[in-house]
Amino acid sequence: MKVIICGAGQVGWQIARHLSGERNDVTVVDYNPDLVRRATDTLDVQGITGHASYPDILSRAGAEDADMIIAATHSDEVNMVTCQVAHSVFEIPRKIARLRSKSYLDAIYADIYRRDHLPIDVVISPEREVADAALRRLKTPSAFDSEQFLEGDAQLMGIAIEDGCPVVNTPLRQLTDLFSTLRAIVVGVRRDGRLFAPEPNDQLFVGDQCYFVAHTEDVNRTLEIFGKSTKKQERLVIIGAGNVGLSVARVLEKKTDRIRAKVIEKDRNAAELAADTLERTIVLHGDGLENSLMSEAGIERADALLAVTDDDKTNLLAAVRAKQAGAAMAICLINDPTMVPLLEPLNIDAYINPRATTVSSILRHIRHGRVRGVYSVGDAEAEVIEAQVLSTSPISGQRIQDIDFPEGVLVGAIRQGKTVISPKGTTRINEGDIVVIFALAADVPEVERLLQVSVDFF
Question: Which of 19, 263, 366, 451 has its CA 20 to 30 A from that of 182?
């Protein structure tokens, strides 16, 4: 597949890393020569320096015979024009654009993206994706990572194994025997900085980070087995009333089991906009790092703090101060991955990585075949793929124990008809089943081959 990626920032670089690693023909376009050089020096890609919306630049990038273009520059307008040029001049069949402005994302204007207007096949909104990720974190406060699959019937959860965990030093095979009715499977473990797919005889140790896939009805029971609290959250303080903070507050206002939220925003205009937009949420104007303002927001009684400003350092410091003041949990937005190792020593419970959420959204739309969902785990270390099994797939009709999966691959859940099951070695995968598969990054191409994706390309 020949792909042009416009924008060599963090998102563009990660998408290029994924696709070039799977032996696609990738060309990266950016007006910043340093970013282009970084991509060509570190990845097996070609690079073009120039404005992505210019026809001559796209022509140099090979747009005449490209299969897909991904417009992920920092400008919404450049991304939109790039897709228009890709369609009108080069007839590129698949066009994906990242758009940030809420006005462009309003549902009442959705018709603008039809082929006879602005021909964009898929619109990705980082802010919307991040807001959804924040809401998932709040729903499962004891998890540092969370994503839904199988139309909400299965969940991937990432939890830290701590002192007091009842199942520490217990082989995973034994967990299946002890909790025979539990619909949950441990699919990944990160130990000493390395992520791997565990074997049945592997054990969990204090300090591990564990990823499991569970039926949604069994999530709380699974968390309790791992010694995690399932306490319902009722009080929330949000630092930052930008697109993300405002979106989260809006959703919370609509929930029947209402969470009482207070928002702190430093910029007066943004604070006034939030106050006018929100009906039942208190908006405070001021610096979210000030102890007096945090106290006014009731941080000492808060079940969680959500720091989602556009500044990583502000988010980190706000989370630290909130925990010191008595907040039960702190979640912060982190754009710079080099800051993630600071979270544990700073006692910050969870973080949201906008890059990872956006990359996951884009991957969902560029995977071949009947892929219905993709989630990027960690720093693109692994993927969780939801896909429908085709009749031509090598795994169709096979028992899991007879399938030659790579060592870094585990099946976490299967939907057979209307029933979601936790698979065992003897479980047979049939045509039409929907599978949720955990795969280390290096093993993703083999998983796609086993799903026989090329037969149903696009």
Answer: 451
d(CA 306, CA 245): 8
CB-CB neighbours of 254 under 10 Å: 8
Task: Please state, in angstroms and rounded to a whole number, the distance separating the CA atoms of residues 129 and 375.
Answer: 12
**Which tokens go with 69?**
């273009």
Helix (H) or strand (E) holding 421: strand 419-421
What was the pLDDT predicted at 458?
A: 35
DSSP codes of every residue in 230-275: -PPP-EEEEE--SHHHHHHHHHHHH-SS--EEEEEESSHHHHHHHH
pLDDT of residue 124: 85
- Rounded CA-CA distance 357/334 in Å is 12
For residues 103 and 428, the model is more confident at: 428
- 75-127 pLDDT tens trace: 999 999 999 999 999 999 999 998 888 777 766 666 677 766 778 888 888 77
- Give the residue, 194 or 355, on which the prediction is more confident: 194
- Look-up of token digits 């960690």: 378
Percent of the chain scoring above 70 in pLDDT: 95
Half-sphere exposure of 242 (CA within 13 A, CB side): 18
Q: Please give the angle made by the CA atoms of 333, 338 and 343, to the nearest 5 degrees.
A: 55
Q: What is the mean pLDDT of residues 152-161?
A: 92
Q: What is the pLDDT of residue 322?
A: 93
**Joined tokens for residue 372:** 């219905």
Q: What is the mean pLDDT of the chain?
A: 87
20-59 per-residue burial string, b: 16 or more CB within 10 A, e: under 16? bbeebbbbbbbbeeebbebbbeebebbbbbbbbbbeebbe
Listing DSSP states for 76-97 in one string gives: HHHHHHHHHHHHHTT--SEEEE
Q: 55: phi > 0 → left, psi -120 to 50 → alpha, else beta; which?
A: alpha
What is the CATH architecture assignment of 2-124? 3-Layer(aba) Sandwich (3.40)
Q: Which CATH architecture has domain 130-225?
A: 2-Layer Sandwich (3.30)
Domain 357-456 falls under CATH 3.30.70.1450: yes
Q: Give the residue with greater pLDDT, 177 vs 322.
A: 322
Based on DSSP, count helices (H) and strands (E) in the chain, helices before strands.
14, 24
Round to the nearest angstrom and report the end-to-end CA distance of the chain.
11
Provide the whole-model pTM. Answer: 0.72
In this model, does residue 222 exceed pLDDT 70? yes
**What residues pair up with 96 in beta bridges, in sequence order?**
70, 122
